[in-house]
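We emphasize that the prediction below concerns an isolated chain of 186 residues; any contacts that depend on oligomerization or on bound cofactors are therefore not represented. The input was used exactly as deposited, without trimming of termini.
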Amino acid sequence: MKRFAIVAFIGMMIFGFFGHATAQRLQGTPDLGGKVVYGGNFGFGLNSRYLRLSIAPQIGYRIFNPWEIGVRGIYDLDCYFDRWNGNTYGHYFGAAPYTNVQIYRGLFIHVEDEILYGIRRWNRETVSRRWYNTVFVGGGIRQYAENGSYVYFMALYNLTWGLLRPNNSMDTPYASPFAIRVGYCF
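Result of the prediction step, given as a token string:
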């Protein structure tokens, strides 16, 4: 909860800095027709030895026209198929409170605190269960449709990348500090 308060505070600072100028710049931006925003993203990757599936619905509330807060639900499945050493599976699920501020005609900045519970399995045996906390910052662009819905493209950086726990394990389930997301919101 403390981290969500920090994320919300940073969002308020950003809104306070850009608030007046943003309200003037966004006159040509379509009104979203309501305060509640819902949508999310879906990801899928497959090759001969690896499968990745990601489902992340989201719901948000537009406090002011350029400022939105909300939460994403997350489920990620990672499968690595190895017929000699055994298959490895990772199930990750959790939530991510977020805030974003639109700064100019579809361009926005985004801050998110992701909390995941991960279960790793190897050959049908549970190897580990643990919590992960990842903080993402970045930005993106929204492409609006006529009915007020939009598609978003986001590039994020993982601030917790490279931080080690006392047992020298990574504090994130991700293989890269960079994340690219594409989603749809109503």
